[in-house]
């Protein structure tokens, strides 16, 4: 049996862009993705602290060091520039793997930089 378990998250990132005319997804500074072990194309849940919206999409790697957090396509309707969001990834694990796994949490500093 496999269970779905919290794998990693970027906690309290600030939305820097919203691009309605893009195919979809969320663009995230690759430095943030690497710091929390989220891969490009990985499914993530987005939780908006400002308005309570929740959505799922996939990641696109943004320019390293840019601090970009850009909701694309329909997701752009779920947040505004300046909103604070949490980006969460999950993984399927056996109960034994889950008992041993330590999730990774990244707390971005100002401008979504790694502190």
TrEMBL record:
Q: In which pathway does it act?
A: Cofactor biosynthesis; (R)-pantothenate biosynthesis; beta-alanine from L-aspartate: step 1/1
Q: Name the Enzyme Commission number(s) assigned to this protein.
A: 4.1.1.11
Q: Which UniProt keywords apply?
A: Autocatalytic cleavage, Cytoplasm, Decarboxylase, Lyase, Pantothenate biosynthesis, Pyruvate, Schiff base, Zymogen
Q: State any single GO MF term.
A: aspartate 1-decarboxylase activity
Q: Which residues carry this modification: Pyruvic acid (Ser)?
A: 25
Q: Which reaction does it catalyse?
A: L-aspartate + H(+) = beta-alanine + CO2
Give the family per the record.
Belongs to the PanD family.
- Known function: Catalyzes the pyruvoyl-dependent decarboxylation of aspartate to produce beta-alanine.
The identity of this protein, by name, is Aspartate 1-decarboxylase
